[in-house]
Every structure is written in structure tokens, then in C-alpha cells.
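Input/output pair, single chain:
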Amino acid sequence: MAGFSNYFRFILKRERAVGLTWFVCMVAFEAGLASVFSGMFSDAESMRAMAFTMNTPAMVALMGPVYGLESLTPAIIMAQECLVWFFIAAAVMNIFFVVRHTRADEELGRHEMLRALPVGRLTGAASTLTGAFALNAAITLASALGLIALNADGATAAGAFAYALSIGAVGFLFAALTLLFAQLFSTPRGVSGAAFAVMGVFYVLRMSGDMNGNALSAVSPMGLGLKVQPFWLNGFAPVVILLTEAAVVAAAALAVCANRDLGGGIIPARKGKARASRFLRGEFGLAWRLSRGTIFAWSAGIFALGATYGAAAGTIDQFAAGNEMFSKMLASAGAASVADSYTAMVFAIGALLCSVPVINIAGKIRAEEKRGRLEQILAKSVPRERMFLSYIALAFVTSLATLALMAIGFYIAAGGMKPGALLTAAFEYLPALWLMLGLTVLLAGAVPKLAGLIWAVFAYAFAVFYFGKLLRLPELAAKLSPFGYIPQLPSQEFALVPLLVPALLAVAVCAAGVAGFGRRDVG
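Output:
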């Protein structure tokens, strides 16, 4: 028992920066949105208009079904707008948390040193699971109390706890799933890749179930979490189901952990060939070998996302034809047609997601540096700039491939649309992706201690896109995002100059990053 408590305290000490940052951001963002939504609507009619907009097929696919139309409050609208995104944030937080304290520690040899102390075989896994539960519980309690303290319009105590508990339960289930994957796979990349792939599958299942009104939504933890319907029904049964599922998965993970070898996984890493090919002996080949899992997983996910949204495109015109109010709202927004507005929204969301693998690949050299592997390579006759440029080139190719796959998936599922127009609408976001690539290179190359700030840029871009109009942010706020200058085709007109600005800026910051990497000390 002493070994468990010491191990648990060690995890808490390691999380005093990262875990505390997640805690503060999650609680503060939930409280901030509650205060904003509370003062957003002047009367019941404005709330009904917002709910009507959210009840379109595109919005249901994005955020989930609308509920509580008979007694709308700002708190209900906030839950419908934001809950699914907090599910995703909680899932990401828990995936990184568990990988950091399990498989990553095993790969770096830390877990072997800890196991040399008087600790049991399951101490590390159980302590990690307890740490994840404590982090989720702390965020849940602080969020619920914060919502109650703000006394937002419609935010009852039961609704606040239902809202916060649904987020915490979904997050803890992903912690348990990631712990199970940490026993199955032998590398941190394999564990995180499997966890994020499952998260993507769950999101697509939720999307399909909510749009078609079938049971697929309940199969997904995100869809099940939405069935809590905070501030209206406040159903706690889905929370109990989610926690029960998490307990079952966690028990399975601990059972597997008790019978596997330290450092290995149930699914062993595939052994490579005895001799590397000529391609793999070069810098670009090494970058490809280390990044191909990320490229394949994200390419498949982006293609599936495009196809899923494309399948819903056929119902948009039919929906608008029977809803005069929605057609008027769309016309006032300046869109030529419902289909154009829907396509522009899908491609903007897809482009934001396409920047994630670009950032991962461009920043992978920093990960190799932190693990001490880059020094072994640069000790040979390998120019460090050429090594860095290999990752940059691979990220550049990935930006082209993912955007193209999104457009192709949308075209195949939607039908009746011109492929050239869809590819144009997708490739228009290339300058924004290149700017994200350039910023990653600048941070990883010149100021490596601040490399993680690129995710703050991504979070800002997403928040401005998703909440900008809702929060009535000034136009300058959008322009500060790498995606703020991009005209949204096909609902807006094409313009070349707004594309040149981020493209030229991307070249400049990328060059500065490579130059900084060439001058600074490695490691």
C-alpha cells in the first residue's frame, strides 16, 4: 500500500504543470462560456432562433441533437453548443495523461527503474488510473460548483452536476480505454494512435446515430453523454453507464497488465527487415518511417469525415425547402445556397483538423530530440538542416494529401457535385496549413522550450472559428488566426491576395525556424 501511495504522489508531482494547466483551462473555459451564454439572448424568440439554427442536419452532425425546445434557457443552448467539444477535450486530456505515465515511461526506461523499488506489478497502472480519476473528478467538481456560483440563467444545481459529470465520465472512460491499449500495443505511438482512432470512430458513430435517430449514438460514449441532456432532463443514468463501462474496461486492462512482460505488449511491435532499403537510409526515409503511422491514420480519418459529411449533404436542400425561416437566415448571412453554406462549413472544419497531422509531423523532430535519439543521428555525417527539412517536406506533402482526401470523400458520398470545385475549396486552405507548419518549425527550431505553444495557436483558431460569431468577436480576432484570411468557398468569392499573405508568412517563419535549428545546441 505504501508503494501505491508513493507512486500516486509521484504522478501528482509530475502533473503539477501539465495537469494543472488542463484543470484551469477546462474549468475556466466552461465558466466563461456559461457567463457569455447567460447574457447573449434578449428574449425567448432569439433563443428559439438559435435553437432552430442548431436543429439543421449540419449542426446536428456537428454537435448532436437539439432538446428542450418547449422550455429553452441559455444554459440548455450552451450545453447543446459546447458539450460535445468538452467531451473531445476530456478524451484528449486523458489519452495524453495515460500514455505519458504508462507506455511512454516504459519506452524511456523510467518504469523499469520504478519497478526496481518495492512496488507491485500493477502499482504503476493502478496509480495512473487513480490519477486520471482524480483529475477528472477535480475538474467535474470545480466545473459544477463554478456553474452554480455563476447562477447563469437556467443553470440549476442538478443541471450543473449533470453537465460536469457527463464530461468527467466520458473522459475517465477514455482513460480506461487508453490504459487497455497501453497493454496491447508496444509503443507510445501505437497506443495514442489506437486511442485517437477509436475516438474518431466514436465521433462518427455519434454523428450517424444523431442524424438518423438510431441506436448508434448510444454505442458511442459521446452520444451516450449527450443523452444526459443537462439543464433539462438531467438524466444521470448515462453517467452511471459510462462509469460502469470505464470500470469494466479498467478491470480488463489491469488483468492484462498483470500477465504481460514489462516493456512488451500483447500485440508485439512488428520486426523490421535485417537491412534497410536505400530509401530508408536517407533523412527523408527516416522521417517517413517515424511518421507513416500518423499519416495513414489521419488520412483515413479525414477521408471518413469528408464522406460522412458528404452523405448528409443530400438532405440539406430538402430540409431548407420546408423551413422558410432557415432559408431567410441563410440568405441574410450572404450564402448563395444552403448546399454552398454547408460545404463551406464542412471544409473549414476539415481544414482545421488537417492541420493536426501537419503539426505532429513537423514537430516530431523535437520529440526525437527530447528522447535523446536525434543526437545519435547528428553524430554521424548528417546535416542538421537537411534532417529538419525532411520532416518539413513530409508535413508539406501531408497537407496536400489530407485536403485532397477530404474533398474526394465528400465528393464520393455527396454525388452531384463538381470534383474540381470541391478540390478548389479544399486546397484554398493550403496557405493556412502551411502557416501552421511554419509556426511549428519556428518554435521547434528556434525556441524549442516553447514548441507546445503551437497547440495554443490551434486552439485559438478553432475557438475563433466555432465561437467567433456566437460571441460576436471583432473581425480582428479572426484575422489573428492563420485561417482568418481564407475565403470560405463556395459560399464566398475566390480572392488571391488573402491567400498570398499567409503563404508568404509561412515561408518566412519556416526559414527562420530552420536557421535557428542550425545555430542552436541540440538536446
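The two ends are 38 Å apart (CA to CA). Confidence is low (pLDDT under 50) at residues 322-326, 328-334.
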